[in-house]
Amino acid sequence: MGFFAASGLLLLLLPVALLATAGEGAGKRAPPHRILVDTDVDTDDLFAILYLLKHDRAEFDVQAITINTNSWTDAGHAGNQLYDLLYMMGRDDIAVGVGGEGGISDDGRMYPDIGGYFPIIDQEMSTVGGCRYRQSIPQGGGGRLDINANYGVRRAFLPQGKRSYSPLQQPTTQQVMIDTISAGPTNVFLIGTHTNFALFLMNNPHLKENVKHIYIMGGGVRSRNPTGCCLKNDTLCVPRQCGDHGNMFTTYTKNPYAEFNIFGDPFGAYQVFHSGIPVTLVPLDATNTIPITEAFFKAFEEQQSTYEAQYSFQSLKITRDTWFDDQFYASYFMWDSFMSGVALSIIRNGQKPNGENDFAEMELMNITVVTSNEPYGVHDGSNPFFDGHASPKFNLLEGGVHSGHVQTGLDDSFCVLKGSIKGKCQDGYTKEMEGPDSVAVLVAVKAKPNRNVKSPLDREFFENFLEVLNRPEHTGQFNFTNQFPRYKEIMYKPDFKHQIKGKPVIFDMDMSPGDFVALMCLLKAPLAAIDLRGILVSGNGWANPATVDIIYDVLHMMGRDDIPVGLGNITALRSPDLGCEYVKAIPHGSGGFLDTDTLFGLARVLPRSPRSEIWCS
């Protein structure tokens, strides 16, 4: 064959080869976007997690979920609820990380598997410690008691998963983060405090390159709080957090700038924002523009064709029904679920620099996270990074932005602004600023209106959220009653009318394992010797108040649903309702709350009582 003939044949074959290659490429689908979620397992977090799990795994694949242990829920309760939720959704493949026993030495050395039970500024070498920031979260109704149990809906609805917390076998948060991010490029969703991920970044700088993007719900940049305001003609009303940048309804008189997720660990959040990894923030600026409206609530009530939609609506309904005032529709917002929707839409659109997405208007801002208050460099005993150290912890700059007064609690006199009901402390404020300490962050500023102007739902994300949760694909397998079709809510109350009764006894317990052994002994004692009339529960001892559900299950197992259970004070007498004055002596991890809240994992083998924490009085 001559040269020109061969060349002609080559030119003829080249387009065919290119077409074949293109055809092969077109047949290949891009790998899924790997996602790690770090959550405090609050009610709105459940909405976000279910929303994420409803998407096609071939596009968005949730690889792991890690739990904040210093925020709205406690480790044992949050872990088991998450296991049950994932079991319902058929996603036992998702790794769950909880706690850890590591610590930080006085000289700043970080040991493996720090559990994140405390903000980094207060983390020492054990899981014993105070509640500098966490005390802003109520411990009783509307706070950790209700959120740990999801207002009783968790026990009534979720199936019992095959996985559960087990001492010495539970994967730690840091283990799960390291394993997940080491395995490949990962998008990180932060919908709680930033302690866990900040510790990961500080301990594993070599893995930063595997973090593609960080999506955050939290903070308030230019936001103006629409809650706690007075009507124009109401002369007797005193405005509360109205107009604040933040949403701290428990501490706005000391700090009107912070939002709960960032306030939980300002220094941790600073490490995340300043990590050099691209950050997209969905703050109160945007979420304040998408409150749960009556129209959305009604539409949700009418659209519950899947178990996940039912669980979400029941959780939302009981939240509304137990809200602290009559302004639920003006003060409950789509926080974490909205962030998840914005994040997935940005990723789907190619993670463009302008953050193009379907649900929120975006703007690039230069911001930082305030970790201490001016004047800097004044050591007043409030800042463990500097106070008592010859050189600052973590080699922080003397006189730098971390060296000022750090808010010590809800009664910090430094934070009082004379002549005002609003405080002056800014710990946790996501502050817009210029200069070397600021970082460029893509910020959601407003929820987009519904493109369907005829719809009663005024936000585009409302339509999407309901559509996604009600999709028949990737749906939940069953709820508790479908999992156990023979289960009936029967109250077992023995008839002791004609029996001789012994001494009447009231048992006061704090739900430590030893207390449960004593309770079993009392229940096994002959009625003629001991007549157990009631149980009083101390909510400020060795277990968190929501652990009262284990008492109900023990009584149900023993056929004694007739015994009333009363939940007592959640804080010690003459101590503040928000705080941890004495209970701070109890470990949060192994051998402490984590084990007692789950009865060392044994609570899962008990039968499920019809009664739950909502029965307590």
TrEMBL record:
Secretion signal span: 1-20
Recorded GO MF terms: hydrolase activity, hydrolyzing N-glycosyl compounds
Domain annotation Inosine/uridine-preferring nucleoside hydrolase: ranges: 35-373
A Pfam family the protein falls into: IU_nuc_hydro
InterPro entries linked: Inosine/uridine_hydrolase_dom (IPR001910), Ribo_hydro-like (IPR036452)
Superkingdom, taxonomy of origin: Eukaryota
Family, as annotated: Belongs to the IUNH family.
Protein name: Inosine/uridine-preferring nucleoside hydrolase domain-containing protein
Phylogenetic classification of the source organism: Eukaryota, Viridiplantae, Streptophyta, Embryophyta, Tracheophyta
